[in-house]
Design the sequence.
């Protein structure tokens, strides 16, 4: 680690397009290295602290397994079992934890919590999902698109459903990876207006899902009720009923279109039962690529390659 301030990955805007594309290509290489079973352990003696204030399957397993595969170790810190859950300030936690580990990932509610942690951390901090953004998922999603269809630059992506943390990260991805993004959300569930306005050259709101998917090379959705919105499930299901992704909707997109969902998915709600196993769905490739993309991200942050 150099003496300068650490680089963080709180949103996709923290890295420039060349750096992001380096991570995507490196993720593809690391996937091959794993298939060949070639030992590669650059993280020997390095430790990742993983702070979780929300549930997770993919994020926890991919970070923990990724660190182990690269020769390092990971410590799982749940807010239920640490002093964070008993009210110790995030700033104090950041100073203490970052004095003992080499890199930190955080999954929490408020995005400002992650920003505050990073501001007081002496090691790189990765946003592993906040209410506002989920940038690690986008690395895996772009990797998956590149593997199946080549560069995403200049392509058209359509987001269907809630204007949530994933949608916001797709808006940032449109800017950084240079693709067009159509967004179909019902009234009351639109993404952040400022983020939309800043990216108006690449992102447009088309509220009718059937219109929005026309010509699209990638269709993406997510749960209608994110973590922390469990009490709103019933009301949301009613508001979103015309926003399900199913094979009939996909048939209106480009014939080569792919379907993505960060998972977990709720069959019969945001996706139909048959969409899950539709040949256009690459949801399990996306899930696996969390492993490879985050290994590449940690290499970038810890080993500071010249990009
Ligand atoms: N997609 C994703 O972040 O999954 P988990 O909530 O299981 O980590
Ligand atoms: N939007 C979802 C993503 C889960 C990975 C949530 O925040 O719960």
Sequence:
């Amino acid at each position: 680690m150099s003496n300068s301030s650490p680089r963080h990955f709180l949103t996709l805007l923290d890295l420039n397009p060349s750096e992001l594309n380096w991570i995507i290509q490196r993720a593809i290489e690391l996937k091959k290295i794993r298939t060949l079973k070639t030992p590669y352990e650059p993280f020997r003696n390095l430790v990742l602290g993983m702070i979780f204030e929300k549930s997770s399957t993919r994020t926890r397993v991919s970070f923990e397994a990724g660190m182990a595969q690269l020769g390092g170790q990971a410590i799982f810190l749940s807010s239920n079992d640490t002093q964070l859950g008993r009210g110790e300030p995030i700033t104090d936690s950041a100073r203490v934890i970052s004095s003992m580990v080499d890199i930190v990932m955080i999954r929490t509610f408020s995005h400002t919590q992650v920003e505050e942690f990073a501001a007081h951390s002496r090691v790189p901090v990765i946003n592993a999902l906040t209410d506002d953004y989920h940038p690690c998922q986008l690395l895996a999603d772009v990797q998956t698109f590149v593997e199946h269809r080549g560069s995403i630059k200049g392509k058209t992506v359509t987001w269907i459903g809630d204007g949530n943390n994933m949608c916001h990260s797709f808006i940032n991805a449109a800017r950084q990876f240079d693709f067009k993004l159509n967004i179909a959300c019902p009234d009351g569930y639109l993404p952040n207006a400022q983020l939309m306005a800043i990216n108006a050259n690449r992102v447009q709101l088309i509220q009718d899902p059937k219109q929005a998917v026309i010509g699209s090379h990638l269709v993406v959705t997510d749960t209608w009720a994110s973590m922390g919105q469990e009490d709103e499930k019933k009301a949301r299901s009613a508001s979103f009923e015309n926003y399900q992704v199913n094979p009939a909707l996909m048939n209106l997109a480009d014939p080569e279109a792919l379907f993505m969902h960060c998972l977990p998915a709720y069959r019969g709600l945001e996706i139909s039962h048959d969409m899950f196993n539709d040949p256009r769905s690459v949801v399990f490739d996306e899930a696996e690529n969390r492993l490879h993309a985050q290994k590449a991200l940690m290499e970038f942050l810890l080993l500071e390659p010249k990009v």
Q: What stands out?
A: Residues 56-59, 129, 137, 262-263 surround phosphoric acid mono(formamide)ester (ligand 1) (CB under 6 Å). The beta strands are 47-52, 73-78, 103-107, 125-127, 156-160, 180-184, 203-205, 218-221, 258-261. The chain has a mean pLDDT of 97.
